[in-house]
């Protein structure tokens, strides 16, 4: 006896409205990212016009400009977390903490490069403490990996692993600002950040440069 497959219930008006609202929110986020990248001082009115909606629609999803910037930052943090986790996972079977740290820095730079123009805006709208709270899982994984590098003797520093995470973070943020200000080429940023951090963690410059070149080559192979 054959069974008939249950049919899907027809979409209700409420479901259609939710889908439409989700699509509007996604469009507003995408347009806001583009507009704020082009003009960090873009107003909610400008964003609404660019998105093809009225200002009330934008405020219906994001009650303030700060809330909109915060939502974009949340997406950036999710992308950073995924890139960081993927890099560590790729080296999970290799006992080479400096290589894993280097891969994570290059992977994170690749992701954050598209968000770097919003960095100063995010730092105004969301405190650094708020940014660090969002990055807590990344910090925890980074601290563990840096501790392994210190324990193995590959890294030598007067700083504990937790403090080294702050140093790494500020090197990344600092070089993003340098790119924004035109004193460093964007394509050099990731490698420069990784080499700078490895040297600050006690690795000889030539060894740090070679390691970063190897990991970068493996990323594009």
Automatic annotation (TrEMBL):
Give the UniProt keywords, A-Z: DNA-binding
Q: Which InterPro entries match?
A: Homeodomain-like_sf, HTH-type_TetR-like_transc_reg, HTH_TetR
According to the lineage, what is the superkingdom? Bacteria
Q: What GO molecular functions are on record for this protein?
A: DNA-binding transcription factor activity; transcription cis-regulatory region binding
SUPFAM superfamilies, A to Z: Homeodomain-like
DNA-binding region(s) in UniProt: 43-62
Q: Name one Pfam family in it.
A: TetR_N
Residue span, HTH tetR-type domain = 22-80
Gene3D superfamilies attached to this UniProt entry: Tetracycline Repressor, domain 2
- Protein name, UniProt field: HTH tetR-type domain-containing protein
